[in-house]
Structures are given as C-alpha cells and as structure tokens.
Amino acid sequence: MLGVLFFGVFPLSSIIILILVCYANPHTWYSELLAFSIPPVMIYSAIILLAFLIIKPARIYLIPLMLAAILCLKPLLVTVAFSFKEKQGKADLTVMSYNVAAFNPQRMIDKRSDIETYRNLYNWFRTNKSPDFLCLQEFYHGSDDDYDLTLDSIASLGGYKYYYINPRYNRHTNGIYGVITFSKYRAINAGQIFYGDTLVNKGIYNDFIIENDTVRIVNFQLRSMSIRWQKADSLDMYDNLNLNVDNIVGRLIEGNELRRDEIAVVDDFLRQSQFKTIICADVNSVPYSATYQKLNKNYYNAFEKGGTGLGFTYNRFPKVIRIDNQFYDKRLGIEYFVTHQEMRFSDHYPIEAGYFFK
C-alpha cells in the first residue's frame, strides 16, 4: 500500500498539478494557489525518483516517476538560473528595478520615517555606480522631514537628470505615491498605463533614444498577493493558524482576480509597442503563475537568461519567492543580472541588469 501511495498515487497527483499549472496555465484562483506547490512537487519528484533507484519496486512505477521528472524541467528552468554570466563592462544600458515599499512597509500605520533606512539607502548610492535607469515601485516622497525628500535625494546622489512619475497625493501621510523612473537620458515620449484604483498599483512608460535606437522602459506594479502572517495574542496556536490560512487564501484569490484584469491591460499595451522594450515590474506572482507566463511568452526574463541561483526577491515571509522581475525584448541581449540581497532597505530586494544591442 505504501508503495502504491508513494510511487503511484503521489507521482500521478504531481503530474496533474504540473500539467494544470505549468502547461495548461489557466488564469484561475485555484491554479494561482497550486502554483505555490510547484517547488515541493519538484523536490518530491526528485527524491522519489532517487528512492525508486535505491529500493527498486515494481517497474510499472517508473512510468509516472519519469513523466513527473520530465514535466518538472519547465518549472525548473524558471526557478533556477544557470547562466553564471560575469560582468564584462559591455552593457549599452543598465537598469535597476526596486520596490521600495514607501521606504517604510508600515507607513500607512506608522507615518514616521525610518531614518536608518534612508541613511543606508543614500549611502549605497554614494558608494556604488548608479544604473542608467532606476525604476522604483511603491515610491514615496514627503515633506515632513528632510530625509523624506526622496525624489531630490535620489536624483542628486544617483546623478539622474530626469525622472518620470505618476504621483498621487495621500493626505494621511502627507506625501505622494506612485511608480517612478529615474533616468540619465531624456525621454522623447512618456505616458501612463491606466488600471487599478490604488496608490501604488499603476504603471508608466518612457521612450529613450540610445545608441541611435529607441528603447521603451515600462515600469509597473500589479496587485499585491498580500501574504501577511498575523499573530493574535487572544488565540491559541491552532486558531491562529486557521485564521491566517483563511486570510491568506482569501487575499490570494482576490489578488489573482485583480491581477488577471491588470495584466490584460498591460499585455494589450505592450503588444502595441514597436520599440525594443525593457519591463521592470513587481508582478506579485510566482514564476509558475499565468501572470508571469503571459509576460514570459513574448519577452525574455532577465533572471532566467542572465542570473545565477534562485534569485529570491522578497525580504519577508515567505521569503523563498521571486516576484520582482525584468523582462526584455528578444532583439536585445543581456550582459549580466544580479539580485542585490545586500540591500535590505525594503521588504523587497532590488534587481539590476545590463543589456546590449544585438
């Protein structure tokens, strides 16, 4: 019975999940939830195949085990990067994308700024070469404190002559929110991508002439997954677990429905572009999701082509996810990609890539 369960039933279940999520890829709430099970499914498939070679049960079990292993190849290629590229200094343009979480993930609750976060961030710009383009999501600029003058500070320290933003003022925190693109090049065209109704879930685009070619930089953030583990002191461990599971599942379902509508708007906009395009985005979806795959269908992912390792970008529970991405036009090449996990100034890590014209 155990042999049937571990070498038959579980592998068949893994096959169904892999086909549904990674190959059929419907944009539904259940496929979004099942997407989080893909890493455990891949690990289980590898372990059980190794166990088969050691224990050597009935050969009939080899069929589902081998099929599961083959189906794991596609999600494996978006989970682990094997490029091992090194910076050669040949990039024609460099781009960093960073969700700065309003420079204080709790800003809506605690309006006070974290001075240490600002100080560390500004020191990073003083001691490192700034990229040609800096695309920030959940950007915040206020006037209550000198440190809150982030627009002026980043432009000055990073050597950026230009910036493009779709600001929205919030009276509660006395500041503006939005996505912003800092640039060392002047845009010949700029505009907004209209979707959603929140302070931070929005997008912008800019067109630049670089090396006698026109490049479009698209910067946007989709609806958050809202994975927040909350602890209620009045509840015991079991009730606390049930409460958090219910809340997280409900948020994931709601977030998936909103992202489905948002990515449809973004995808329609991207299809209309004739320029070479680089996309900087907090997609708030794991790489096996329909949201991610919609972008990955027409563009290369910078991490997959130029990164190394696992490239997790979320600096908070559950941590082992990659939701911040750069996608680039297939008419461009990638020189390098790096996840700056040393920059712990937000609940996200910044990602940086260098591109060249083919």
Question: Mean pLDDT across all residues, rounded?
Answer: 90
Please give the domain count: 2
User: What is the N-to-C order of secondary-structure elements (H for helix, E for strand)?
Assistant: HHHHHEEHEHEEEEEEHEHEHEEEE
User: Quick one: biggest sheet?
Assistant: 7 strands, mixed
In CATH terms, the superfamily of the largest domain is Endonuclease/exonuclease/phosphatase
The outline comes out as globular
How large is the share of residues in beta strands?
A: 15-25%
Count the E strands.
Answer: 15
Count of helix runs: 10
Please state the second-level CATH architecture of the largest domain. 4-Layer Sandwich
CATH topology of the largest domain: Deoxyribonuclease I, Chain A
Kindly report how far apart the N and C termini lie.
57 Å
- Alpha-beta content class: alpha+beta
Radius of gyration: 22 Å
Give the fraction of residues assigned to helices.
Answer: 25-40%
CATH class category of the largest domain = Alpha Beta
Stretches with pLDDT under 50, minimum 5 residues = none
How would you explain this protein's 3D organization?
With 358 residues, this protein is α+β, with helices and mostly antiparallel strands. Strand 5 and strand 6 form a beta hairpin. It is globular, with a radius of gyration of 22 Å. Strands 2, 3, 4, 5, 6, 14 and 15 form a 7-stranded mixed sheet that branches. A 6-stranded mixed sheet has the order 7-8-9-10-13-11.
